[in-house]
Amino acid sequence: DADVTQTPRNRITKTGKRIMLECSQTKGHDRMYWYRQDPGLGLRLIYYSFDVKDINKGEISDGYSVSRQAQAKFSLSLESAIPNQTALYFCATSEGQGAEETQYFGPGTRLLVL
Amino acid sequence: AQKITQTQPGMFVQEKEAVTLDCTYDTSDQSYGLFWYKQPSSGEMIFLIYQGSYDEQNATEGRYSLNFQKARKSANLVISASQLGDSAMYFCAMRTGGGADGLTFGKGTHLIIQP
Prior knowledge:
Distance between the termini of chain A: 33 Å
Strand content of chain B: over 45%
Structural class of chain A: mainly beta
Distance between the termini of chain B: 41 Å
Radius of gyration of chain B: 14 Å
Largest sheet of chain A: 7 strands, mixed
Number of strands of chain A: 11
Structural class of chain B: mainly beta
Oligomer: heterodimer
Largest sheet of chain B: 6 strands, mixed
């Protein structure tokens, strides 16, 4: 079984709808992250969480919210989806803080907002 | 602010040849880590190799090695004996020891291995 899973893998929604992307991990890592990837660009950080009580904004948090329900679960919500939020979304985990800590990514969720 | 630059949008390489993917970085932090990820057409992000800013030796992982030149702020990925399965997008990324968490990514290099 995969260590980091994301659901759904693909989603089509309409402008103005609220949607939630879910991430679960079995790696036992404290830190979890949400990134988005747009064509021709690298990944950009949306939100990150040190633990269930600590949520932090990343580079591009506007239009998004998150919930850390448990150590293993980190959800990303689009309160009112818009077309420019069409992207590939990745969840990632790492064991701790520090420059040496590798981040491990889930398989991604492809989101299309019409 | 941190920045990663990958100057090669795309590369074509013959199978079995070695290939070097360029990456330069910019940070004022003394402690940082450099990572390379592979993204095949299926979309997942696969961790390849890591180099720490205080590591004196270049990192190696199987056919992957990282040519780390700290004074030049470069962290090039070298793939030896390329294979058709190496065709993918490759991203260089950096993580610093302080400040906001998360990785800063470059825009990637699309590598195509030709038979």
